[in-house]
Each structure stands twice: as C-alpha cells, then as structure tokens.
C-alpha cells in the first residue's frame, strides 16, 4: 500500500511525529510545501498532520486542503495534530478534527479518529512516549485499511 504522510511543523514536534509515523508504516513523508494536489491520487492512504495553532491547522495545511479539490475523492485518509495539554486550549478545539472534516468534505474515506499528540509547552518538547504512541496509531490506521 502506497502511503504519504504530509505535515507542517512550527517547532519541529509535528515533524518528529510525522517521521515516527512514516517509519512505523514505511510511508513516504513530505512537508506540506513539497506536495501538490496532483500528487495525492498516486497514494492509497494519505495522513495529514499539523500543529494546532489557535484551534486550527497551519495556513500551509489549510491551503493544501483548499486546493486539493477532487484529488482526495475516494482516497483513504487520516489526520493528526500536536497540541498542548492545557484545559483552556480545548475552548478553541484542535487541528486534527478540522483536518478530518476537510478530508471528509472532499470525499476522502476517513480511517480511525483524528488523533492528537501532546507537547509539554508551546515549543515542546513532545511528552514522553508520544512518538511511540504515534507509531502505534499509524499501525492501527493501516490495519483498518487492510480489513
């Protein structure tokens, strides 16, 4: 199964999660600027991740999702984000559910629930065990695709 992990990262934490996901499932990993909508049809599974910025994905991820159009129609997809654990952050929501909503609107087949991976502060680092949790989440996504 050909899989692409697309990410954006502000402080490097989301990149680390994307790389852990890619290694766990032997996926191609690209930063959002290295992907064009026409690339997406070549993959069986697309996983998109972003840091949560004011309750939303980064502008670059939002831009890709706005321009992807029908390129994700029928493609299996999943979404993740990196986020703070502070309770006040929940007021704004998180990036992953918004990414998943956009994917669904474009006709992608969502696999699993959007997932968040936790950072200790605005700039990180990731909480202990999050890279391992990301790898396990990715394996479950792939498993659900092959059922």
What labels would you give this structure?
Rossmann fold, 147 residues, alpha/beta, six-stranded parallel β-sheet
Short note summarizing the structure:
The chain has 147 residues and is an alpha/beta fold. The protein has helices spanning 13-25, 59-68, 95-105, 130-146, and strands spanning 3-7, 28-31, 45-51, 76-84, 109-110, 115-119. Strands 1, 2, 3, 4, 5 and 6 form a six-stranded parallel beta sheet that branches.
Secondary-structure content class: alpha/beta
- What is the CATH superfamily label? Flavodoxin domain
- Mean pLDDT score: 94
Helix fraction, binned, reads: 25-40%
The number of distinct β-strands equals 6
Succession of helices and strands: EHEEHEHEEH
Instruction: Please tally the helical runs, counting DSSP H or I stretches of 4 or more residues.
Output: 4
What CATH architecture would you give?
3-Layer(aba) Sandwich
Rg from alpha-carbon coordinates: 14 Å
Under CATH, the topology can be stated as Rossmann fold
Task: Report on this structure.
The protein is of the alpha/beta class. It has one domain (3-146): Rossmann fold, CATH 3.40.50.360. The chain has four helices and six strands. The chain has helices at 13-25, 59-68, 95-105, 130-146; strands at residues 3-7, 28-31, 45-51, 76-84, 109-110, 115-119. Strands 1, 2, 3, 4, 5 and 6 form a six-stranded parallel sheet that branches. Strand 4, helix 3 and strand 5 (109-110) form a beta-alpha-beta unit. The protein is globular, with a radius of gyration of 14 Å. The relative contact order is 0.21.
């Amino acid at each position: 199964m050909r899989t692409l992990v697309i990410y954006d990262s502000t402080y490097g934490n989301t990149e680390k999660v994307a790389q852990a996901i890619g290694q766990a499932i032997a996926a191609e990993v690209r930063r959002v600027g290295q992907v064009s909508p026409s690339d997406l049809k070549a993959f069986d599974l697309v996983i998109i991740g972003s840091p949560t910025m004011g309750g939303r994905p980064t502008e670059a991820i939002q831009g890709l999702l706005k321009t992807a159009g029908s390129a994700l129609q029928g493609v299996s997809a999943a979404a993740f984000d990196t986020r703070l654990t502070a309770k006040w952050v929940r007021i704004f929501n998180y990036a992953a559910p918004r990414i998943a909503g956009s994917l669904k609107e474009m006709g992608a087949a969502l696999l699993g629930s959007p997932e968040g991976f936790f950072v200790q502060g605005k700039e990180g680092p990731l909480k202990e065990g999050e890279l391992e949790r990301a790898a396990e989440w990715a394996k479950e996504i792939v498993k659900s695709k092959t059922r």
